[in-house]
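Field log, afternoon session.

UNIT: design team B
ACTIVITY: writing a sequence onto a fixed backbone
BACKBONE:
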């Protein structure tokens, strides 16, 4: 870069040869120049002071709590806990008091923070609104309901602990008097609102504060009665000696007068709380009101969303607590939303920064402001379930993401180890090596295999993720101003307009001076558009558009994770799932990785990223269209074998429902298929029971293909799409000659509905796949050639393109032989595949082998094949060669060429004239009789046996050759081959396929193919092929 004015730092001349088309991009040149100049990218603090040190100094933080509170735990209980499970809340408080004493150190003091009971806050809002509208009677009714709720809650809790009746009533009366006193003040406020028809934020805060005030009074009163009467809990005698005390936060929580969202003065709050705590006698168990405070002017204020959690964090920080324990409905922060990822699990530890990132990008468990006081003082937060005992699995949030266990967990069996999963874990050899490396002791001598295992584990540690979060129902707005339109700060102008209108935004960026993007809630989009139009009234906009609905999907990696590897795996997971990314979202923080996607892809995207990063076994939910053939039975046998390898493979495959042509296979107590939506069996059906019911099923009237696929689309897919990694396995055996256009349309509708909602499909029958392709062509949504791709609305083709990799049909061609996979590998390796030849019909293969090797008649050989359950519904379809023709069409599709009927020469093994004329659905006995007559007339079996004795073999061969352009030609017919032929040694149900690099080589027995595949073509191999397709599908 010689004399480049844009890069004055790079003065030393670097001679770089320039050749058009072979040089790297400008970005690459910049990178090379930076490397040559030996400059490293570093992050530098540009402030004249250390922000963290200055913050500590300004806040005047002390190292410990007030006298007597050097060790303390803060317990916070939410509204659902104190409203619906108050007995369990009391037990939990006593358990923590005991755990604090049994630790063997200085006893830990316990303080409690409570929210309003149940829906009390919502009821108070309703009462305030009713009073504002002048409906005082309705407001009074709501107040009466609140009184009844809280008093009954106290009475039922005391009864739960078997408090003597003579004690209960006086205690309830005392509690009722406290509640009545608080409600009397509430009534005065409501009367004032009703008279003045004015509901100011200040008045509303005073009204809402009564929820927490009543709740704290009830909890403190009940605890006092239980302690006084030494009531037993969990089968143990209550030896707790504490003095419960109701403490209203208005006594110490100092805020400003920003009613509804008050800001806390931490220094003054800390000073007030220190003085208050010093006045409490030993053994005091304070029960604080959450959510509320008092302004410097003396008015009651509320702290906004998650106000009680925020109160607990402030109190814990002020008292320098060892931990703040948030007791809620879930046992911690989950790796993803369990509604989107049913196999999500709680994260044991996370850092403050990880928690803040997670709360910003979608987690509703805590608010970012809750973490701020804890971060300043280094107080850990524990999120746990109210139902669990102290020390049970939970999520601990601390500075480093790790914290010393402060409470011993109950003794429990050691859980089974869970194996880390990497993208290549589906390969058994590597899976076994990785499993051994985790479960066996470390080797003292390093070997290549041990180094490889260590590298694998290190890589997984580098990309470790905390959680995957999502924000849904968003609108992505683009603002573009005409160049020279009067401003070069489109983003600044847009943000000022939205700030003036009081509209919140989630994220914004500016690509160039005249181009900006803004992410807002979908519900705010109309107001945002109006505000932007006003803000740019004096400028000329060339674009103001909204892409919606979109979702923001975010990954929060571990604090020490490699951002490069984490980003690569994050976007690779989305790419493999064919999730369209509208925009990569970046903020000031480097912790999270986020992007915008279509809202309908949210579930699929979150599941895909979760599977790529976390350690839980991947759950796969199968819905099997079993038909009435043997493939589905063989699949069940293969799944039995798979279940024994589940721990090694780290994939849990569950059969959630099975449907045959005669109807569903239901377990005892399974839901009725007459319902509008079929609730599947998420935990999986018993495979033994499925096989037993399939073998013992009474053949009844069969559903037509149209009715079958319409039933699946309407009643199965809505439930299936909500299960983890859903897969439709289509083992149905469709008769192509009997299929109607309506059948094809039903198959297309069912398959596209699956693909559109992220349901993977494995197809094991070539005729079904041909009906699907034919249906798409008839609807005008599938071109005859891959080059004819067109852009447009969400047609069938666009869905297929968007979900490429979600439809596999390898088993439809060659059962368990990986023919299509071999073709893909050959092409990827740079080797051409110009011809494919093979004996692809296991049914015809066993018939020819029986006649040749065993000397039986054509009828007897056909009966033997039918008894094995490997024939098509009409045996004439097998013998006509149509099944083989369908398989060749699938191979042609895999090669990216078209096989028109005019280029297909098909010679049936048995001519159609041999069967009863005009009787397409002839009964088996009539077909067998026709075969017997044909054999007697033509000497078919005799000629096959003679060829065998002469050292030749009859093989029904199919050959596909690529022409110039995008078409192919094919021939199918009976051939007599010598021992040099690749298909000569086949026996029974075996099939063979070969790949050739040049056209014409397949007709020369002296020319060897580039690759030959041999193996079973039906029976167990068919089940193996279907399972292989499923495993490859779920790896996406």
């Amino acid at each position: 870069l010689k004399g480049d004015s844009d890069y004055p730092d790079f003065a030393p001349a670097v001679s770089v040869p320039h050749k058009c088309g072979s040089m790297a991009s400008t970005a690459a040149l910049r990178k090379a120049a930076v490397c040559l100049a030996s400059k490293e990218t570093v992050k530098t603090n540009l402030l004249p002071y250390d922000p963290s040190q200055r913050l500590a100094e300004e806040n005047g933080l002390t190292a410990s709590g007030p006298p007597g509170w050097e060790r303390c735990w803060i317990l916070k209980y939410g509204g659902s806990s104190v409203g619906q499970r108050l007995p369990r809340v009391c037990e939990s408080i006593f358990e923590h008091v005991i755990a604090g004493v049994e630790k063997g150190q200085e006893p830990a003091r316990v303080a409690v923070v409570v929210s309003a009971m149940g829906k009390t806050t919502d009821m108070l809002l309703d009462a305030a609104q009713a009073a504002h509208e002048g409906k005082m009677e309705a407001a009074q009714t709501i107040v009466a309901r609140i009184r009844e709720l809280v008093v009954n809650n106290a009475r039922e809790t005391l009864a739960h602990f078997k408090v003597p009746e003579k004690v209960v009533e006086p205690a309830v009366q005392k509690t009722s008097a406290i509640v009545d006193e608080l409600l009397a003040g509430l009534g005065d406020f409501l009367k004032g609102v009703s008279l003045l028809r004015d509901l100011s934020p200040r008045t509303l805060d005073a009204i809402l504060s009564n929820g927490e005030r009543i709740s704290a009074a009830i909890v403190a009163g009940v605890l006092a009665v239980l302690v006084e009467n030494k009531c037993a809990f969990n089968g143990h005698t209550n030896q707790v000696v504490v003095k419960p005390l109701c403490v209203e936060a208005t006594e110490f929580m100092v805020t400003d007068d920003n009613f509804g969202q008050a800001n806390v003065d931490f220094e003054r709050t800390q000073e007030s709380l220190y003085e208050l705590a010093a006045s409490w006698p030993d053994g005091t168990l304070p029960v604080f009101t959450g959510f509320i405070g008092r302004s410097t002017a003396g008015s009651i204020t509320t702290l906004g969303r998650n106000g009680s959690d925020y109160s607990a964090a402030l109190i814990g920080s002020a008292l320098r607590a060892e931990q703040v324990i948030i007791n809620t409905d879930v046992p911690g922060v989950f790796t993803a939303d369990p509604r989107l990822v049913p196999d999500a699990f709680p994260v044991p530890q996370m850092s403050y920064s990880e928690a803040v990132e997670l709360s910003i990008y979608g987690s509703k468990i805590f608010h970012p402001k809750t973490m701020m006081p804890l971060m300043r003082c280094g107080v850990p937060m524990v999120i746990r379930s109210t139902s669990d005992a102290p020390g049970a699995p939970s999520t601990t949030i601390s500075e480093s993401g790790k914290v010393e266990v402060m409470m011993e967990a109950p003794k429990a069996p050691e859980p089974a180890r869970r194996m880390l999963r990497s993208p290549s874990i589906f390969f058994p050899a590597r899976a076994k090596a990785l499993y051994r490396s985790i479960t066996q002791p470390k080797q003292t001598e390093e070997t290549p295999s041990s180094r490889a295992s260590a590298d694998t584990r290190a890589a997984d540690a580098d990309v470790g993720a905390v959680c995957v979060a999502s924000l849904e129902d968003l609108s992505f707005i683009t603002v573009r101003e005409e160049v020279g339109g009067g401003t070069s700060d489109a983003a600044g102008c847009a943000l000022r307009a939205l700030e003036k209108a009081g509209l919140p935004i989630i994220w914004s960026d500016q690509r160039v001076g005249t181009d900006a993007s803004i992410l807002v809630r979908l519900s705010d989009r109309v107001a945002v558009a109006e505000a932007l139009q006003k803000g740019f009234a004096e400028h000329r906009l060339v674009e103001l558009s909204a892409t919606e609905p979109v979702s923001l999907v975010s990954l929060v990696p571990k604090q020490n994770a490699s951002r490069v590897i984490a980003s690569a795996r994050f976007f690779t997971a989305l790419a493999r799932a064919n999730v369209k990314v509208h925009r990569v979202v970046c903020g000031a923080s480097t912790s999270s990785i986020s992007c915008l996607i279509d809202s309908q892809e949210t579930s699929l995207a979150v599941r895909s990223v979760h599977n790529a990063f976390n350690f839980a076994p991947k759950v796969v939910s199968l819905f099997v269209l079993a038909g009435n053939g043997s493939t589905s039975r063989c699949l069940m046998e293969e799944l039995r074998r798979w279940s024994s390898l589940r721990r090694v493979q780290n994939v849990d495959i569950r059969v959630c429902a099975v449907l045959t042509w005669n109807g569903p296979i239901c377990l005892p107590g399974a839901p009725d298929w007459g319902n509008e939506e079929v609730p599947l069996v998420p935990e999986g059906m018993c495979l033994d029971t499925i096989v037993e019911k399939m073998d013992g099923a009474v053949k009844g009237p069969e559903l037509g293909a149209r009715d079958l696929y319409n039933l699946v689309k309407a009643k199965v897919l809505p439930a299936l799409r909500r299960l983890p990694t859903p897969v439709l396995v289509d083992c149905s055996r469709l008769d192509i000659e009997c299929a109607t256009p309506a059948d094809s349309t039903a198959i297309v509708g069912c398959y596209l509905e699956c693909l559109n909602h992220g349901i993977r499909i494995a197809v094991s029958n070539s005729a079904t796949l041909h009906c699907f392709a034919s249906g798409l062509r008839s609807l005008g949504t599938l071109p005859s050639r891959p080059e004819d791709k067109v852009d447009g609305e969400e047609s069938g083709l666009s869905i297929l393109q968007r979900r490429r990799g979600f439809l596999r049909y390898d088993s439809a061609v060659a059962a368990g032989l990986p023919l299509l996979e071999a073709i893909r590998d050959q092409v990827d390796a740079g080797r051409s595949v110009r011809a494919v030849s093979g004996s692809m019909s296991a049914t015809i293969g066993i018939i020819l082998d029986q006649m040749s090797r065993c000397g039986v008649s054509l009828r007897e050989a056909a009966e033997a094949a039918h008894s094995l359950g490997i024939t098509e519904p009409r045996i004439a379809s097998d013998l006509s060669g149509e099944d083989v023709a369908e398989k060749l069409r699938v191979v042609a599709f895999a090669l990216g060429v078209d096989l028109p009927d005019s280029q297909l020469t098909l010679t049936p093994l048995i001519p159609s004239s041999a069967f009863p004329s005009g009787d397409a659905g002839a009964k088996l006995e009539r077909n067998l009789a026709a075969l017997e007559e044909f054999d007697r007339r033509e000497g078919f079996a005799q000629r096959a046996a003679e060829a065998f004795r002469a050292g030749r073999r009859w093989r029904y061969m199919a050959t596909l050759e690529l022409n110039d352009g995008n078409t192919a030609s094919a021939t199918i017919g009976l051939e007599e081959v010598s021992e040099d032929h690749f298909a000569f040694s086949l026996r029974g149900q075996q099939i063979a396929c070969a790949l050739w690099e040049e056209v014409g080589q397949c007709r020369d027995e002296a020319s060897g193919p580039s690759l030959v595949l041999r193996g079973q073509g039906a029976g167990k191999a068919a089940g193996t092929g279907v399972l292989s397709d499923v495993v490859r599908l779920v790896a996406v």
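LOG NOTE: The longest strand covers residues 465-481.
NEXT ACTIVITY: expression trials, pending approval
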